[in-house]
Structures are given as C-alpha cells and as structure tokens.
Amino acid sequence: MKNLNKHIFLIGMMGSGKSSVGKILARDICSAFIDLDQEIINRSGKSIETIFNEEGEEIFRKLETETAFDLNMNEPSVVATGGGFPLNETNLTWMRELGKIVWLKSSSEIILKRIEHENRPLLPRPIKKEHIDSILNSRISVYKQADLFIDTDRYDPEQIAKEIEDKLI
Ligand code: S3P
C-alpha cells in the first residue's frame, strides 16, 4: 500500500464530491481524513447554514480560515475543504505550502442534480443551474491553480479516489 507523505487538499464546488472522495481516499491509503466544514461545525456548535444566517458570510470565512490554521496537521492527511476556501489567497498559500491541491471538477448540471434538494447558504431555493454557473465561473481561475484536476462527472467516488492515488501518491 502507498503511503501519504504530504497533505492532500480537495477543492471544488459544493456537490463535487470532496467529502465522499476524501473519506474513501483516506481509508484506502490509511491516512487521517479532515472535513473542514465538519470541523467548523464542531468548533462553533452551529450548522454552516446557521452561521451564515446569524453571522453572515464574512464571519464564516474568518472562522473557516481560523479553523483550518488551528488543525492538527502533524500527520499527512486528506482534507476536504469548503467550496469557497481557496478563494482567499492566504488559504491557497497555506495549502500549497503544506501539500498538494486537487480540484474535483464537476459541471453545473451534475452539481445541480446532487444538491437541488439541499439547503445551501449561497444558493437560494429553488436552486437554478444559472446561479451555480455564475458561482463556478467566478471561481474557475482559482480552482485552476490546483496541482491536479479530476473530472468527476462520469466517475464514482471510488474511481476518483483511485485516480488521485495513482497520480499523486
Ligand atoms: C461553500 C461551500 C460549502 C460551505 C459553505 C460555503 C461555498 O462547503 O463551506 O456553504 O462557498 O462554496 P462544501 O463545498 O463542502 O459544500
């Protein structure tokens, strides 16, 4: 079995499969798995939706960075980040310094199918493809700074995890 000697950060839009792929990848290579959104929930005792509603996006973004920077990164880990995390240059630099960044690239059509029945703070219901398109377009130049891009539309999380393992580990 291959061993991880650096951290792997999964970035990409909500609904692109970062948490599912991250869990499988970490299981397959016996590394730790960290879900940044879940860490924020644990730390604040509030859901992501509640943080957005009660405190707003700016506070959420601060909390997101603080939570990440306080993580115990002593052992090589697979980290699933929130969709907006790499937009902050400081966060992007932090990930680059600590490991490799993988963009799970999904089309708006597939993202819509995956999240249309969920509550997403940045996407008022009913969730529209055009709205996902506009968020995705505004972020593409940042996501493209990843070390590796994986097209997720036609593959299941097991296959995507395997591809990351083959290409990066
Ligand atoms: C966000 C994505 C969410 C969560 C928050 C903001 C974003 O995480 O951090 O709702 O800005 O795209 P996931 O990408 O894990 O769904």
Concise description?
This protein has 169 residues and is of the alpha/beta class. It has helices at 18-28, 36-44, 48-69, 89-98, 108-115, 129-143, 157-168; strands at 7-11, 32-35, 77-80, 99-105, 148-151. Helix 1 packs across helix 7 (157-168), helix 2 (36-44) crosses helix 3 and helix 5 packs across helix 6.
How would you describe what is shown here?
The chain has a five-stranded parallel β-sheet with strand order 2-3-1-4-5. Helix 2 (36-44) packs across helix 3. The chain is globular. It has 169 residues and is α/β, with parallel strands linked by helices. The chain has helices at 18-28, 36-44, 48-69, 89-98, 108-115, 129-143, 157-168, and strands at residues 7-11, 32-35, 77-80, 99-105, 148-151. Helix content is 51%, strand content 14%. The protein is built from seven helices and five strands, in the order E-H-E-H-H-E-H-E-H-H-E-H. It binds shikimate-3-phosphate. Shikimate-3-phosphate (S3P) is lined by residues 14, 18, 37, 48, 82-84, 120-122. The site of shikimate-3-phosphate has 10 residues, from loops.
